[in-house]
Specification:
With about 900 residues, the protein is of the alpha+beta class. Helix content is about 30%, strand content about 25%. It is globular.
Amino acid sequence: MQEYKKNWTFCDRDDDFHFKMKLENHSNFYYFPLCNERFHASITPILAGSASLDINSFLLKPVTEEELLSSNHSRNFWINFDDKSWSATGNSLLQKAERSEVVTVKGGLLWHEVERVNQNLGIQSNILNFVPATSDALELMRVTITNLSDKPKEITGISGIPIYARSADNIRDHNHVTSLLHRTHLTNNGVIVHPTLSFDERGHIKNHLRYQVYGVDKNGDPPVEIIPVRETFMGNGSLDWPDYVINNKDFVKPDEDFDGRYAIAALKFKPVVLGQGESTSFYLLLGIDNVLIDHTKFLGEDNFNQVLRDTKRYWGDKVSSVNFVSSNEYYDNWLKWVTLQPVLRRIYGNSFLPHHDYGRGGRGWRDLWQDILSLILVERQEVRNLLITNFAGIRLDGSNATVIGSNPGDFKADRNNIPRVWMDHGAWPLYTTNFYINQTGDLEILLQEQSYFNDQHIFRCKRTNPYYKESIGTRLHTKENKVHFATIFEHLLIQNLTSCFNVGIHNNILLEGGDWNDALDMAREYGESVAFTSFYANNLRILVGLLTALEGKGRKTIKLTEELMILVDPELDLENPNEKQELLQNYFEVVSKEISGEFREIEIGELIDYLSNIADFIIDHLNSNEIVTSADGHSWYNGYYDNIGDPFDGDFNGDVRMSLTGQVFPLAMGIVKEEQVQKVVDTVNEYLFDENIGGLRLNTDFSHVKTNLGRAFGFAYGHKENGAMFSHMEVIYIYGLYKNHQVHEGYKLLDHLFAHLCDTDRSFIYPNLPEYINQQGRGMYSYLTGSASWMIYLMVTQVYGIRGNLGDILIEPKLLDCQFKNGEAKVFTAFRELNIDLIYEKSTTKDYDDYCISGYEINGTKVDVDHRASICFKYIELESQSQDHHITLKVFLD
């Protein structure tokens, strides 16, 4: 374990878990999420950031990374005293120039507080923001001002919050024109902007939303003056040096025309005299609704504090569903934030945070299934229905809708209906569903029926169906005009068989529009993803295992849609790519027309043999044809072929090229032969490890733009998909190491990654696992990343080694000696209806590879077992010994 530069300080109290850190350099790089199920916001140390309902309804101006560095838009709050003006958020021209204030940030679940101290002026601000854990689309803000001087100060508080009130598209598209739609109203407590229309990609729509900002002081009194027009507030100044504040301008006449102008909520409160050490507070509400928000339920000290307590409790319950206790308490506390990230991505999708400026709301198909990996552990109550609903996004040709809206079953072909297929999309549903089945024992979900997605795109989006009728909606109908339903198992079988037959000239699966790496998008005709070919091979083995389990339950046959039987051809020559494609195109021709709606029963044993044969062929093909070597004796897997059929990985006359992805999936999916594992690990360490960026690079430097593979190679090397430390692949690689018992190697990478992230002088982020670390060592694209889900999945199922086995509980610890604290390591997790405290107790200093399970204890009764690496507990036996669905299981290691 390394020595960590602990820039974060964690407070781990039951009622108030948070981190704390002082900010000095580059504080404008940091941002934090604030949200509930309806409302998305972001906030920075100077209280910049956006707030919105959706892509078309922003209360505060949308921000990108560039705006974080340069914008003067913020939830600003000014204090006038002693003939001086001071921004409590630090967002004034003078403070930006001087940079002399001491700034401390606290981040909790999910609240954000900034303390700003100016000793020269003898004043301090503490500003706390959060979004209530309710169905209300609003953000609450408390500004507390303290007099640090030894003399009384008369202070006047003035908010300066610009109200954007329109779509993100209007940043440059009709920006001024859409301001003309604004109808601005004053109330005793604030400003309401009610645009007449909404101008966005939907057309000209009558608007019903009201963008609202209200405020009261500590006594519950309303503002004494309100300025609703931005140009009036700024005068000859700017948002960070406004005339109204700096020069104490008089209030505008009440009859001034406010409509059609850029709006602001400038609320001026009555003066307050503060003695030495005394404080006062102001309370603000920023919200969006069709009706006027009852701000009296939220504003004022008592209401604010109660809603804050409820919000802390709500998010605390989310992260408490998984909890780790090891010798590294610092790492354990960081994992709480990682546990929260998949929940955040379920809410935000890939939008609404500063780096995530490419999304329009909703989630991608791949994101959906990977997030469920951890949601099975964190939000397990609704997972079954969520899984079944999501299968309605699969087409009968094996492709799928790629954007999932905020409502269940809301599927779209893609953003703006772009016909594109990512070849990896068919892999994830089975992997996730298999995990769900093992965790729950719910084999019956495979026999649940669901409809198919249907739109104008056919032949895996390579053609358009001229007979498609939009009027029938997005559910596949039979020739009898009935919605066609089939089993979840059939949906999974179609996705995986069509993918395995969709091969290129090297007999690997075609890359199409990309795999997990969206930036490999320029090899649609002939590119191949060797990496994901190994994933699909393992998926076929998973299908065999599930079929075997169903057969063990007494099922002999399973019904399949009549047209699907084309894909079940035992005479198919698996070595012939052309024959596979011919069969596939024949299937596409049939299912692109009206289907019969008929089914055929097939023997489960026959299907097991068929799928096993294909899986074995693919695995043998990969190990025989896709291992490359270098002149210095290193050996690893080729990951891709480009659009002219050349391999991505290899030694090209001394120029060694290597992809991490090409090694990740063979390892994680268990297709690497035992004697090859160490060779792959050694090669990865040789060519891809870089301590300066916290771990493994995604690829070696190609030094040219590879236009026959993807836009990734147009990015500067060391950034994003071109050679950054990409968390997604790093964590799945570590998972593969643990799965192949390379525990010391896996832990080393986890340790390097965490050491880098918590050194905020390099990473410049709050606690989270970002999407990637760039060439300068900075964490990029925080919070909304699938790597967080994989990290929790890795920690629970591999490192602490508690996972399901068709509903029973398998225990297989892979902890190193250094992870035990006083001989113990613990994990708390939920399994089916049980809450389990699993305690590993080790009385020796033996490390992994040397210790074994020697016994266990349930409710004080100890049972000795023969020394073994793993042990399986029948769920029904543990459940019978639980108390209130809780059990403490102690496992002894010797």
